[in-house]
Design goal:
Wheat Germ Agglutinin (Isolectin 2), domain 1; 10 strands; flat
Length: about 270
């Protein structure tokens, strides 16, 4: 052990050996950090580089910064306030590089009506109102093949990512298939068009569980009492079923009400195979 003196607080302490003695020695980390912050900052730091003198573009005050920091700056400022004042004077109106004088007339993409916008909005403003924008998106853009493909993919992704994988009737069907040793794949995406509730690879079979309300069970809802949403869903079900049958799959669409009241009878098509 070697006697040593702390270079910051002057306290005597011991080091293990002469090899541990350095240019500056400290009794603890706290003294080391305090010494660094007080005596080895700024120009006292051996790695410090000299700063060059520049002048503020707004008030001409001297500013000391490194050359590397000033290299890519067009204007140097002593404070944020000076920068804001400079920008408000120089880049205002015609001084702004993006300035375009006056308004221009633009033709609405949906209704064809002409409307005025500042010249800088040229190429950005396309609709005279939010109503026209919404109608254009729903009636025109949504009908294009690219957008239809994108919307279908969004629907598939949303279905696959949902937290609750099964509805109550779907869970009953899933447990029934498991209890009967039938391997099925729930929420199975097909042909990059839609997601089916259950796909049974060994039987090349698709099972769709239809909620009574959302799919408009004819035993509960007559055609004249169906909402627009229910009618659209029913039409989608027909398209899906016909497409899958055409592709060679056996398709069974079962109602929520039948699952609750007569599950064994509803699932008889499985036992008959």
């Amino acid at each position: 052990m070697v006697d040593c003196k702390c270079d910051y607080c002057g306290k005597d302490f011991k080091l293990k050996g002469k090899s541990y003695i350095k240019e500056h020695n400290f009794c603890c980390r706290e003294c080391y950090y305090k010494y660094q912050s007080e005596f080895l900052r700024g120009i006292n730091n051996k790695n410090s580089r000299p700063k060059d003198i520049y002048h503020c573009a707004n008030c001409s005050k001297e500013v000391l910064i490194h050359k590397s920091q000033a290299k890519n700056k067009k204007n140097i400022f002593c404070s944020k306030q000076c920068r804001f004042e400079f920008d408000s004077k120089v880049f205002k109106g015609e001084g702004n590089p993006n300035f375009k004088k006056g308004n221009i007339k633009i033709k609405c993409l949906y209704c064809g009506k002409e409307f005025e916008r500042p010249a800088w909005e040229e190429g950005r403003a396309k609709y005279c109102s939010k109503e026209c924008k919404n109608k254009y998106w729903s009636e025109v853009l949504s009908k294009t093949p690219e957008n239809q493909k994108r919307l279908k993919q969004q629907g598939i992704n949303a279905k696959l990512k949902q937290k609750n994988k099964f509805t109550k009737p779907e869970l009953i069907v899933y447990e029934y298939l498991q209890n009967n040793n039938i391997t099925s794949i729930p929420q199975y995406p097909m042909f990059n068009r839609f997601v089916v509730d259950f796909f049974i690879p060994s039987l090349n079979m698709v099972i769709e569980v239809l909620g009574d309300y959302w799919h408009g069970n004819p035993l509960k809802y007559t055609d004249d009492k169906l909402t627009e949403k229910q009618l659209k869903t029913r039409e989608k079900d027909k398209i899906k079923m016909n497409y899958l049958i055409k592709e060679g799959f056996e398709v069974h669409m079962i109602w929520e009400n039948d699952i609750y009241k007569q599950l064994e009878k509803t699932m008889e098509f499985i036992k008959q195979i």
